[in-house]
Specification:
Elements lengths: L2 H13 L9 H18 L36 H37 L1 H16 L2 H12 L3 H28 L2 H8 L4 H38 L10 H8 L8 H27 L2
Length: about 280
């Protein structure tokens, strides 16, 4: 979902009356998937007793069965354990990427929207240039300059997301600056810094936080793509994109090596998107 689509979805949400609370199985399932993924990243040993890097002799490419729920890979390593331990590699990089885009992008957007004038013009022209470059191409360019690795891949994805956060934050700040209660605060003698901190920022940041949840899913896809192409986490680390890349050579004989990691990535991304929709609606 692009930034334009996200803004359109927010406008539709604002125009739709709030509904009474009802049980939403899809939303509960999304939260359940995200909580399970975060728990796996924090305490993987709770979910499995197998090692993510040590293989078992004679257990290469075993199909899903009792004892190896998701089968084993070409080196006899339990695929379920590798997916569980891969959550820490994937989600930690995602958190770095989203945090970088959120902090830096929001700061630039708030600065442009609150100061205005030439500062806003120059910053927004720079943002327009970044938005004109495909995010994957921008991430690859930054990653090639910095070098490969998990941290560098996370920073590259974070750099690619700065522009979208800046555009959204600047738009929200400009919109709120021209609202009646902000004009009343200025008219009653409020200082710019006080009005910005008490009235503009709290209301401008709520949609940005909802967009960060959406960006969480996009960052997972971006980082998995970089790892799949060989620019992200190096083996034998069980990063989700790397697991898919390692299993592509065995699609005909061991379909589970790519299928199950791919399903996990899709499930987490869809869950993040669903949670973002819920946050966007509730915070309005």
């Amino acid at each position: 979902m692009s930034l334009v689509d996200y803004a359109s979805a927010r406008q539709k949400t604002a125009a739709t009356p709030r509904r009474s609370f009802s049980v939403q199985p899809g939303l509960w399932l999304a939260w359940l998937v995200m909580i399970a993924a975060l728990l796996a990243a924090v305490a993987p040993g709770v979910f499995t007793d197998y090692s993510a890097t040590d293989g078992v002799a004679g257990a290469q490419r075993l199909a899903p069965q009792l004892g190896h729920w998701l089968g084993t890979d070409q080196l006899g390593r339990d695929l379920y354990a590798r997916i569980i331990y891969g959550a820490s590699h994937s989600l930690s990089a995602v958190l770095i990427a989203v945090a970088m885009g959120l902090i830096v992008g929001t700061a630039l957007g708030v600065l442009a929207g609150s100061i205005g004038g030439r500062t806003e013009s120059w910053l927004m022209r720079a943002v327009d240039v970044l938005l004109s470059i495909p995010s994957l191409l921008l991430s690859l360019s930054v990653l090639i300059l910095m070098g490969f690795g998990t941290l560098h891949a996370a920073l590259a994805v974070g750099v690619a997301s700065i522009a979208s956060f800046s555009r959204l934050a600047r738009g929200e700040v400009v919109r709120i600056r021209h609202s009646e209660y902000v004009e009343a605060a200025f008219g009653s003698g409020g200082r710019f810094s006080t009005v910005l901190w008490r009235h503009i920022l709290p209301n401008a940041l709520t949609p940005v936080i909802a967009y960060a949840a959406l960006q969480f899913g996009q960052a997972i896809l971006a980082l998995s793509t970089l790892s799949f192409l060989g620019y992200g986490t190096p083996p034998p680390a069980p990063e989700w994109g790397l697991l898919i890349a390692e299993g592509r050579n065995y699609l005909a004989t061991a379909w589970w090596l790519t299928t199950f990691p791919g399903v996990v990535v899709i499930a987490v991304v869809l869950s993040a998107n669903r949670i973002s929709q819920q946050l966007s609606g509730v915070r309005r």
